[in-house]
Design goal:
about 425 residues, Growth Hormone, Chain: A, about 75% helix
């Protein structure tokens, strides 16, 4: 339940800074670091396949870990609160596993390190996501979701471009120190964000909480479909739209390298992230505000339409300028979708199970990321039949995802659900 204490503007930042750090870490890894590391271990013609396998497995683990961490968090009674102990432990484990990305000397070692890192981060992320329903008054959830996304976007725009610079130096000079800077910088930001969250966020310790049994841990994945039908349709819509965005993010570096034939694809991918991020920033807060005023669904419909136009623009793009225009449209789409969609989630999750159900949104979030990666073998298969045909098929599938995801929102009809 949202806190009855007056919620101040600075409180929005306190409950979002850790999410911003995660939103710096994962785009750096998925868009830049992992694709470049994979090129060092696998055949050129199979790079999309190996990238898809690695990230699919890691994100599938995220789908499994996050709801359980959220369910345990909901029933915990630590003096530090229900959420912060998990953020502390998950972050420390993540900092332990993150160096394995740089130390890897084969695809298998890279694969294992990445999967362990996914598990660690999702121990923290599931409970963290419950800060908005826990602490934010109902009439401010749209704005809180917008601030959350703004903070995450800013981290991506500012910091990911720096990582792209480090990786450009790594690929051109071949010095390992640049790779370690690329990995170490997100680690420092994540540690600082965790410490800030632990110190500044105020939680009221829960009493009379029940311990969670093995059976209940397995029930962490259970959704009462009949009672929470709106939540199921929410998951379907979020899954499909994020699959479109995740596919584009995952294979952006290879697309720029193979189709547009950019000489320094890491730097170009970084510039693209900046273009998308700027447009995300422009769209996110107005979208959150308008979703409070006019409802969540109209904003999500508009986001899907703009996303479709952005993908079509990308299909016809032949140079970096056109790529940036497409990125801008996709940024507006994502910036409109993310806060309105997350506000919708906080509207419909059952009271008393906020962290578990918001952890279950990771079925759509990480699930979308995982499923998006499965197109990697498809891209490689059709690319061997005709130059870059696989990338064209990829874009067509992304359009279908956007259309179906936007249409699914129509099925969300009921009022916010409460436990009885």
């Amino acid at each position: 339940m949202a806190s009855q204490k007056a919620f101040q503007p600075v409180d929005y930042l306190k409950i979002t800074i850790f999410g911003a750090a995660l939103s710096f870490l994962w785009p750096s890894l998925h868009t830049l670091i992992i694709p470049i590391r994979i090129l060092e271990f696998v055949p050129e013609a199979q790079k999309n396949t190996y990238l898809g396998i690695l990230t699919f497995t890691g994100l599938a683990l995220a789908v499994l870990v996050q709801p359980v961490a959220g369910a345990i968090s909901d029933r915990s009674s630590f003096s530090l609160g229900r959420r912060r102990p998990f953020i502390l432990v998950g972050t420390l484990l993540a900092l332990l596993f993150l160096p394995s990305i740089g130390l890897a000397n084969s695809f298998i070692s890279l694969f294992m390190g990445y999967c362990l890192l996914q598990c660690a981060c999702n121990i923290a992320q599931g409970p963290f996501q419950a800060f908005i329903p826990d602490l934010v008054p109902a009439h401010k959830k749209g704005i809180a979701s917008a601030v959350k996304n703004l903070a995450e976007i800013l981290a991506g725009v500012i910091f990911v471009r720096i990582v792209a610079y480090f990786l450009d130096m790594y690929t051109t000079q071949g010095e390992e120190s640049w790779m370690w800077l690329s990995i170490g910088f997100p680690a420092v930001v994540l540690l600082a964000a965790m410490v800030t969250t632990i110190i500044t966020v105020e939680e009221t310790p829960q009493t009379n909480t029940q311990s969670i049994s093995l059976k209940n841990r397995l029930n962490a994945y259970r959704i009462d479909v009949k009672k929470h039908k709106d939540f199921v349709w929410f998951l379907v819509s979020r899954l499909l739209i994020l699959m479109a965005l995740g596919t584009l993010q995952s294979f952006a570096l290879y697309y720029l390298r193979d189709v547009v034939q950019i000489e320094n694809p890491a730097g170009a991918a970084g510039n693209l992230v900046v273009a998308i991020g700027i447009c995300l920033l422009i769209a996110a807060y107005p979208a959150g505000y308008l979703s409070d005023k006019f409802g969540r669904k109209p904003i999500i419909f508009c986001a899907g339409f703009v996303g479709i136009i952005g993908i079509i623009t990308l299909f016809f793009a032949k140079d970096l300028t056109a790529i940036m225009v497409s990125g801008g449209l996709l940024g507006i789409s994502a910036g409109s979708f993310l806060p309105s969609n997350w506000a919708l989630a906080t509207d419909i999750v059952p009271q008393g199970e906020e962290a578990r159900y918001l952890g279950l949104t990771n079925i759509a979030t990480a699930g979308a990321g995982a499923l998006a990666r499965l197109i990697g073998p498809v891209i490689d298969f059709f690319n061997t039949r005709q130059t870059n045909l696989g990338y064209s098929i990829m874009l067509g599938i992304c359009v279908l995802y956007m259309v179906a995801g936007s249409a699914s929102v129509i099925m969300i009809r009921g009022k916010p659900v409460e436990n009885t």
